[in-house]
Structure to design on (1565 residues):
């Protein structure tokens, strides 16, 4: 029996746990294609829907907060659920943070799943809908149709469940084949099921067999265990109980060297790193970090490990007996990603942008739309980008600026350092509007001492550092 | 130098130097007629210029002078000198700002823009540099915005090329007509570019001029401009595009501000005045451009017109009586005095050619008030007996307007003849400006705001086309169908705010439906010409009012599908009755009047609307004059003036006719004291106030403005004062009653001649529908969309007249629907979805006398694409050859593959290997093992793909279920006594909300089932809940009370629900037959948005 655990609001809930101020706020999460992936109830009330463009959603809801869909974070959040499920079954397939399939065997499955659901809801406070069926497709539809925090057991025949389910819900069937099938009188799985298999096969070829099985509720898709995620681990059992931090660091360095060797051997990079210390009382201390860049070098790994160790140091109250360095999110770094980070190959921003777009397109085609999250979702592009090619690094940092009597910046203070304006290369005006409110800015492109090229933006009386030259 | 700065601004002919220094004139301004690149209305721009004390203002829309006339009129109101110009896009994509110094310069500018459209195409004008070389006389050139060639070269530091370009332009615009344009719009490069241009000017001795590339009046309008640019560039408001503005600096800045910005170069500011002083009013003023009619020696146009008029009168009146002679003399004298003889002859010539070539032509509109037009056979309404006033058609100061109807399918032939006769350069269609109303504004701005398409569709679907874009907010309170969606009002606050800002702005230019302008001078010297999308006649970029201002006389070549339908019917009838003629129908046929009285006039021109059917029931028309009155009565003017019920009552003798004053007896006597025709309004004003008819016509036209501005009461006072002064016996009460009727004519109404023209066509079509229903309804179905009803409703009506509707058949159908004897209509291929003319031709030619025996044989002989074959199969075209529609569709690919094998000519073609035996002998592949579509599915597919339910009405299929819930047919409902409460169900046909006298909303619709049409009226408290249902549901279930008025029966709706197919097919059969159930209990509350019947 396959159970589908459906958590439609997990992403929203995770964001709200991260930032408590988001409770009660209309919130939407946007994917890299600028389409909303998930919307909160408050946003839905204002007419915001998943699939909508973020800009359009903002035009509907003035207070809407749009955040990038942070897949890793939601996966991390869903991990609690997945782990709990993994205790009950060895076959757990998390498809997305929202959907997870679990294969259950044995007796009293419904009771067990109900109990599990109750415990999960109590522990996580996520809303869960569970569908139980013999196949994934039926379980999924059962889960979607059931109420929140309830288990829906499919007692009817799968064909009956799918009777009214539109073929459009099967993501692999395009719009044109759907229209074609409609002309043949096939719109739902139910209609499909009524056709003789031979005719279906003659008409639709290999697709027919698959469709036919689907119509009978057999998707032939087993639950594929993806648990635990692949990690590489290097560990060292210390010969004696150690309290000296330098010894631990030395052990960490050896682990880092071994890990780097193995990563390079696999031609992979890791994107997260964890240090695990086992204390003499067998308690474990763990510190984990998601790395800014994918790495595979010993020095980088060791630097990150040391950083984690420094963070753990106050909690190390007993001697350490075992040290483990664990590299996670393997393969996250790749040749493509590194190439993109090479700023020097194509210094002109438009060429870089072109290459970036091509690469993102390729990746999305290959791995799905949500596989790439870029900063575009965080930073709204400015129209001045068209004119200011030398500046490619955008920031929004409040700075203190001293101006001349003509209002031109003379020097500014940033992070405790004073920058003297040597030349004002250019100045221009910009306008932005949101919800019928027009804001006007004057922008200065300046060269400073200590050497640097910056853009300062004056809005009313407020100065912002908005660009830093490469 | 001639200075023409208007005195109103306080500028004298020669401005003193110190005065000039304080002045600045915007010479680069865009209005909304730059199409999505101007965010302030013309009036706002001119008003702002006047407020800033600018003595002049130049309008430089992109590749357009479409706003020239409106701009000049507006400037004259504010005492500002209008300078006409345009920002022209050259062939390399660069921009040049060109200003016309005078009429010659204006003509050159028009020619250059015309050349641009001819060179670059309708949507992307690009003026060739070569054309510029011959169009520079009296044209001032400013070097353009940042998209100008010169500024672009400067910006990219190509100074040597910039210098050469400046020299080249100086050569082109010799005599000091070239100015380097400095635009300080605070873009990153703008200041440096200005400095460099000024330096270049100093080097070359070229003057510079400051402009601000104005796109809006106030800085706050930047948002509107940005949104418009987002629409134009197909981006949303978050996206980046080079053609979207960077900042909000392109406002109409004050002279002080401009002087401040250009403090470093005051001469650039001063030169704006120097340029303005060189410009005079460039717009042509009422030039006589009508072509001279070519005549034999010894004739002149007035003489020849007189000759033709009297000759025609002899024929029309069987001899010219003194009355006719006097009338003709009067009309001819006025036509000759005003110089319109050539225009009459030109129209006569075109109509004569059309008739000679078998193209039917009938006149309508105010021309029907002219005896000369009647004598020339342009119209068919007898003027003398009706005493139609010529003044409604032509008076001094008014341009005549002759409207001629031609069959829609032959109208292009008329255009071709005109083009051939007068030359392409001399003929153009008047243009129209497609302006932003609520629906279009919501769609465009919604896209720019990146709102989801389904959301936009949901919002715009509920906004009807007559809500102004700036009144969407009020519409949610005003229109009942919008009230359920009031939540949208807040949700789309930003959208609606932005919509209001672009309300009425032109979005793009279009072609007037019929107005053609013919000139003896090339039209491109008066206004630019743009190629039309149809590619037949060019579009003259002036709308009809502006064209009239320039002196052009429009000739309306109208397309009337009814005439095409009549033509089809006539040809079909003549196959069995060769002597039958449409023009010789008797006007006193009792059966035709009986049809009208019975309210069965579906498909009859002008008499098929529910309002007309209802009127016919109470008026019971017995002769032609009743029909003329009927046509004119169902118009906003008479309806608002409560004219309909008073006319019916007086006509039927229920009340005494009251003309309110003896002076009106002669005018209103024939219409029982009711103002029915537009001429009567004019005559009443003239008779009561003593003004001339021309002045009275102006007063009539002014009623609309009074109504809009809310000054009707002031107009009433003026009228009463004048009327009571002239007629001492007029009491205040009766004067008020009279003005109530007159004030109602702020709405639209017909002239008597026009009504009579329409009534004549209407009567003849009614005659056809009575005596030749198969031929006539087949003709109507061939020319859809037309009239009030869909092809399906027309088919249902034909069926009720005993005509069988035969489905599309691959061996029997032709292109058009055609009568089969007197009792059947065979549907034509043109009704089948996606069948193009070429496909139909291939099918008919492929058949060529030898019928198809199978689908396979058809595919062998006619290679049609798969989707068309599917459509033909699914609509039942092969039903007589193969019964199994689904089985055919299922294995269609195999059939096509086999057919390809038979068609393969090469013996060694791999396809030919599949050949086995004759195509006739080989069975068509059919998937017999699967079930065929159900009867219902087949029915729905036929309806969906042809638009017509062939074998029966859709409700025939549902009747047994509906009977179980005591849902009556429309025929049964119409037999019930008045006051009976009944429930009916049917298709919801043409719901509409006409204006009412009281201003309270009322909704009319018709429910159509297999037995007929029943009028539904909805008013009072129910309208709020029922309007959304009636306006959006394709099929409805209605409960109401039967009402009878004369012979007409209607149902006053009390409840109405959406009727969903699934409810009927799934819920109703489960009901036990006894006791009968209330249908609401069965169907429950219906959601608002549902798809009904899959259509």
């Amino acid at each position: 029996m396959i159970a589908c655990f459906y958590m439609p609001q997990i992403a929203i809930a995770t964001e709200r746990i991260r930032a408590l101020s988001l409770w009660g706020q209309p919130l939407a999460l946007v994917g890299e294609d600028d389409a909303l992936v998930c919307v909160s109830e408050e946003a839905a009330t204002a007419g915001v829907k998943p699939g909508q463009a973020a800009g359009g959603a903002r035009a509907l809801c003035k207070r809407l907060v749009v955040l990038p869909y942070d897949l890793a974070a939601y996966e991390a959040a869903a991990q609690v659920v997945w782990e709990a499920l993994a205790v009950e079954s060895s076959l757990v397939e998390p498809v997305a943070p929202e959907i997870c399939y679990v294969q259950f065997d044995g007796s009293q499955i419904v009771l067990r799943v109900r109990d599990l659901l109750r415990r999960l809801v109590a522990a996580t406070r996520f809303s869960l809908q569970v569908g139980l069926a013999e196949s994934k497709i039926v379980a999924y539809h059962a889960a979607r149709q059931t109420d929140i925090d309830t288990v829906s057991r499919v007692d009817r025949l799968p064909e009956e469940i799918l009777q009214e389910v539109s073929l459009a819900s099967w993501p692999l069937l395009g719009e044109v084949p759907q229209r074609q099938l409609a002309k043949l009188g096939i719109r739902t799985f139910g209609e499909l099921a009524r056709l003789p298999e031979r005719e279906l096969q003659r008409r639709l070829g290999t697709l027919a067999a698959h469709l036919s099985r689907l119509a009978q509720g057999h998707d032939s898709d087993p639950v594929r265990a993806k648990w635990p995620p692949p990690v590489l681990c290097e560990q060292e059992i210390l010969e004696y109980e150690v309290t000296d931090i330098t010894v631990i660091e030395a052990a960490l360095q050896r682990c880092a060297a071994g890990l780097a060797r193995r990563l390079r051997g696999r031609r992979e990079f890791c994107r997260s790193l964890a240090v695990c210390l086992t204390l003499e009382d067998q308690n474990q201390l763990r510190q984990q970090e998601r790395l800014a860049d994918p790495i595979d070098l010993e020095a980088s790994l060791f630097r990150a490990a040391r950083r984690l160790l420094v963070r753990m140091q106050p909690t190390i109250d007993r001697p350490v007996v075992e040290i483990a360095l664990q590299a996670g999110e393997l393969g996250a770094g790749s040749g493509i990603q590194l190439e993109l980070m090479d700023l020097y190959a194509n210094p002109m921003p438009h060429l870089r942008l072109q290459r970036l777009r091509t690469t993102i397109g390729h990746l999305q085609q290959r791995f799905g739309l949500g596989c790439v999250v870029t900063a575009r979702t965080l930073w709204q592009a400015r129209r001045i980008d068209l004119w200011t090619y030398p500046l490619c690094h955008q920031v929004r940092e409040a700075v203190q600026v001293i101006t001349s009597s003509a209002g031109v910046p003379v020097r500014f203070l940033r992070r405790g350092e004073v920058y003297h304006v040597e030349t004002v290369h250019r100045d221009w005006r910009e306008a932005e509007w949101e919800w019928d409110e027009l804001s006007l800015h004057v922008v200065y492109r300046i060269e400073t001492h200590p050497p640097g090229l910056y853009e300062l933006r004056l809005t009313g009386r407020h100065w912002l550092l908005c660009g830093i030259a490469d | 130098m001639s200075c023409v700065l208007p005195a109103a601004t306080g500028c004298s002919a020669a401005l003193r130097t110190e005065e000039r220094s304080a002045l600045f004139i915007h010479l680069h301004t865009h209005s909304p007629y730059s199409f999505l690149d101007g965010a302030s209305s013309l009036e706002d721009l001119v008003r702002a210029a006047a407020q800033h004390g600018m003595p002049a203002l130049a309008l430089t829309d992109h590749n357009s002078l479409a706003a020239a006339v409106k701009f000049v009129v507006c400037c004259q109101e504010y005492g500002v000198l209008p300078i006409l110009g345009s920002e022209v896009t050259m062939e390399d994509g660069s921009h040049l700002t060109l200003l016309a110094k005078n009429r010659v310069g204006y003509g050159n500018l028009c020619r250059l823009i015309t050349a641009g459209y001819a060179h670059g195409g309708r949507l992307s004008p690009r003026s060739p540099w070569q054309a510029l070389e011959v169009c520079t006389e009296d044209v001032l050139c400013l070097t353009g915005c940042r998209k100008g060639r010169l500024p672009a070269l400067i910006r990219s530091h190509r100074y040597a090329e910039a210098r050469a370009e400046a020299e080249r332009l100086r050569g082109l615009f010799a005599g000091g007509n070239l100015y380097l344009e400095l635009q300080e719009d605070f873009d990153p490069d703008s200041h440096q570019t200005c400095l460099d241009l000024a330096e270049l000017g100093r080097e070359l001795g070229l003057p510079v001029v400051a402009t601000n590339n104005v796109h809006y009046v106030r800085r706050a309008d930047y948002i509107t401009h940005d949104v418009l640019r987002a629409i134009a560039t197909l981006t949303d408001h978050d996206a980046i595009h080079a053609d979207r503005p960077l900042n909000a600096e392109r406002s109409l800045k004050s002279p002080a501000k401009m002087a401040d910005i250009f403090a470093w170069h005051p001469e650039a500011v001063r030169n704006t005045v120097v340029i303005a002083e060189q410009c005079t009013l460039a717009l042509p003023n009422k030039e006589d451009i009508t072509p001279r009619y070519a005549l034999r020696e010894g004739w002149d146009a007035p003489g020849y017109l007189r000759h033709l008029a009297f000759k025609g009168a002899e024929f029309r009146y069987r001899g010219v009586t003194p009355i006719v002679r006097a009338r003709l003399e009067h009309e001819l004298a006025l036509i000759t005095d005003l110089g319109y003889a050539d225009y009459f002859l030109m129209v006569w010539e075109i109509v004569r050619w059309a008739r000679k070539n078998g193209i039917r032509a009938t006149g309508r509109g105010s021309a029907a008030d002219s005896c000369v037009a009647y004598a020339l056979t342009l119209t068919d309404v007898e003027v003398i007996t009706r005493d139609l006033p010529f003044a409604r058609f032509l008076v001094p100061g008014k341009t005549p307007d002759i409207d001629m109807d031609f069959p829609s399918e032959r109208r292009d032939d008329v255009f071709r003849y005109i083009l051939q006769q007068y030359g392409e350069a001399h003929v153009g269609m008047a243009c129209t400006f497609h302006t932003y109303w609520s629906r279009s504004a919501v769609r465009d701005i919604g896209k720019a705001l990146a709102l989801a398409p389904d959301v936009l569709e949901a919002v715009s679907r509920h906004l009807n086309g007559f809500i102004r874009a700036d009144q969407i907010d009020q519409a949610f309170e005003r229109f009942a169908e919008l009230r359920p969606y009031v939540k949208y009002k807040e949700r789309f606050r930003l959208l609606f705010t932005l919509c209001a800002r672009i309300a009425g702005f032109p979005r793009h230019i279009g072609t007037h439906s019929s107005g053609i302008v013919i000139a003896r001078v090339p039209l491109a010297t008066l206004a630019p010409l743009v190629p039309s999308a149809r590619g037949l006649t060019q579009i003259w970029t002036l709308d009809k009012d502006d064209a009239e201002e320039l002196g052009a006389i429009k000739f309306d070549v109208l397309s009337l599908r009814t005439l095409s339908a009549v033509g089809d019917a006539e040809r079909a009838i003549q196959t069995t009755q060769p002597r039958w003629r449409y023009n010789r129908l008797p006007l006193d046929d009792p059966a035709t009047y009986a049809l009208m009285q019975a309210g069965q006039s579906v498909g009859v021109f002008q008499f098929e609307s529910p309002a007309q059917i209802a009127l016919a029931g109470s008026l019971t028309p017995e002769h032609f004059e009743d029909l003329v009155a009927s046509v004119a009565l169902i118009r906003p003017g008479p309806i608002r003036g409560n004219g309909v019920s008073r006319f019916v009552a007086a006509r039927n003798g229920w009340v005494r006719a009251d003309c309110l004053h003896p002076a009106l007896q002669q005018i209103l006597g024939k219409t029982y004291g009711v103002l029915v025709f537009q001429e009567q309004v004019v005559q009443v004003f003239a008779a009561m106030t003593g003004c001339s008819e021309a002045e009275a016509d102006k007063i009539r036209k002014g009623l609309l403005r009074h109504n809009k501005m809310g000054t009707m009461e002031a107009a009433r006072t003026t009228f009463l004062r004048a009327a009571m002064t002239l007629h001492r016996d007029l009491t205040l009460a009766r004067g008020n009653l009279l003005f109530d009727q007159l004030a109602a004519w702020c709405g639209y109404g017909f002239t008597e001649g026009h009504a009579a023209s329409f009534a004549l066509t209407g009567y003849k079509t009614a005659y056809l529908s009575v005596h030749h229903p198969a031929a006539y309804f087949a003709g109507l179905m061939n020319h859809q969309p037309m009239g009030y009803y869909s092809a399906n409703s027309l088919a249902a009506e034909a069926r009720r007249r005993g005509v069988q509707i035969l489905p599309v058949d691959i061996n029997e159908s032709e292109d058009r629907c055609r009568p089969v004897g007197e009792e059947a209509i065979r549907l034509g291929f043109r009704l089948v979805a996606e069948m193009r003319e070429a496909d139909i031709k291939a099918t008919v030619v492929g058949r060529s006398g030898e019928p198809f025996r199978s689908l396979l044989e058809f595919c062998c002989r006619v290679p049609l694409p798969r989707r068309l074959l599917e459509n033909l199969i699914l609509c039942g075209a092969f039903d007589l050859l193969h019964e199994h529609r689904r089985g055919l569709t299922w294995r269609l690919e195999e059939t096509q593959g086999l057919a390809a094998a038979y068609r393969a000519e090469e013996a060694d073609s791999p396809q030919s290997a599949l050949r086995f035996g004759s195509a006739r002998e080989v069975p068509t592949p059919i998937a017999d093992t699967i079930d065929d579509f159900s009867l219902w599915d087949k029915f729905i597919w036929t309806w969906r793909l042809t638009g017509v339910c062939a074998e029966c009405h859709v409700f025939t299929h549902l009747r047994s279920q509906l009977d179980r819930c005591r849902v009556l047919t429309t025929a049964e409902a119409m037999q019930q006594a008045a006051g009976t409460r009944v429930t009916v169900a049917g298709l919801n046909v043409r719901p509409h909300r006409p204006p009412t006298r009281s201003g309270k909303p009322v909704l009319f619709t018709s429910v159509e089932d297999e037995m007929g049409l029943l009028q539904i009226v909805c008013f009072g408290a129910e309208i709020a809940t029922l309007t959304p249902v009636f306006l959006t549901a394709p099929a409805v279930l209605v409960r109401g009370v039967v009402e009878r008025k004369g012979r007409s029966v209607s149902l006053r709706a009390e409840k109405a629900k959406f009727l969903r197919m699934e409810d009927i097919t799934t819920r109703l059969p489960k009901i036990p037959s006894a006791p009968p159930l209330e249908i609401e209990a069965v169907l429950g509350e219906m959601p608002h948005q549902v798809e009904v019947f899959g259509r």
Remarks:
- Chain A touches chain B at residues 46-47, 49, 51-57, 59-62, 183-185, 194-196, 198-199, 202-203, 380-388, 426, 428-431, 433, 435-436, 438, 440, 445 (CB under 8 Å).
- The longest strand of chain A covers residues 417-434.
- Residues 341-347, 375-391 of chain A have pLDDT under 50 and may be disordered.
